[in-house]
Amino acid sequence: MKIITTIAALLISAASLAQTSPHKYQLVWQDHFNAKTFDSHSWSKIPRSANADWKRHMSDADSLYAVRDGKLILRGAVNTNLEADTARFVTGGLYTKHKRTIKYGKVEVRAKFGSAQGAWPAIWMLPDDEIKWPEGGEIDIMEHLNHDNIAYQTVHTYYTHVLKKDQNPPHGSTLPIDRDGFNTYTVEILPDSLVFSINGRTSFSYPRIETNEKGQYPFGTPFYLLVDMQIQGSWVGKADPKQLPVEMEIDWVKFYELRD
Asked: How far is residue 227's CA from residue 65's CA, in Å, rounded to a whole number?
């Protein structure tokens, strides 16, 4: 029995080590949302644009933003003020563009979100330089659809999106989440790969590979973070107004720089 217990302990230890990153990081910025509102030195409201589903309903209306009990609250709702804004739905979103960026390192976000038909909360990253999408790359740390019990983690590049080479190597994966509770979503941005995880469990890695094709691994420039509640789109589908409003809560955000 003693031998069996020892072997079990070793196996648990090995499994734990397998989930631990071999890289060294230094915390360079964190936000626990302990003030009365979000820190405008780190965050800006995301402006609306009709060019993409995800920001078609973005709004700067104060009712869509709050800091409550040490958590950032972003809302998606039916628009009840059509005289001021003709959009059917309105959503809140913040980004750290030109304020907080990371080149190589690790980004962690602890968050939870409500579920609704057509709700599409996202935590993701884009290059801080004005590079035409998708040539600069996109890092989707978390996307959630409707009432799913999983979250999506995905990489978009010219190579995956335009050239359609999204399986060599695979550009995304999913993992189960606690749909009604907080989960920690992580990406490690490294010179040779992106490593995604949820609650310390690795989802997948997207490696730099040897190829003559354009834009396979455009990562290695400063990226900024976006957190936003999105409503309706070609991927998530139609929204059900009766299930709105819906909220996402951000408990904290942490940026670490790579030190090895």
From this structure: 12
Residue 3: inside a domain: no
Q: Write phi, then psi, for 8 (nearest 5 degrees).
A: -60, -40
- Predicted confidence at residue 260, as pLDDT, reads 74
pLDDT digits 0-9 by tens, 94-136: 999 999 999 999 999 999 999 999 999 999 999 999 899 999 9
One-letter amino acid at 257 equals E
Q: How many domains in the chain?
A: 1
Tell me the per-residue pLDDT of 204-223, one tens digit each, with 9 for 90 and over: 999 999 999 999 999 999 99
155, part of any domain: yes
In a domain, 4, yes or no: no
Q: How far apart are CA 219 and CA 249, in angstroms?
A: 28
Question: Cβ–Cβ contacts within 10 Å for residue 60, how many?
Answer: 15
CA distance 239 to 245: 11
Please provide the DSSP assignment of 194-231 as one string: EEEEETTEEEEEEE----SSTTS---SS-EEEEEE--B
CATH number at residue 219: 2.60.120.200
pTM: 0.91
User: Which three-class secondary structure state does DSSP give residue 68?
Assistant: strand
DSSP collapsed to 3 states, 101-163: EECCEEEEEEEEECCCCCECCEEEEEECCCCCCCCCCEEEEEECCCCCCEEEEEEECHHHHCC
By percentage, how much of the chain surpasses pLDDT 70? 92
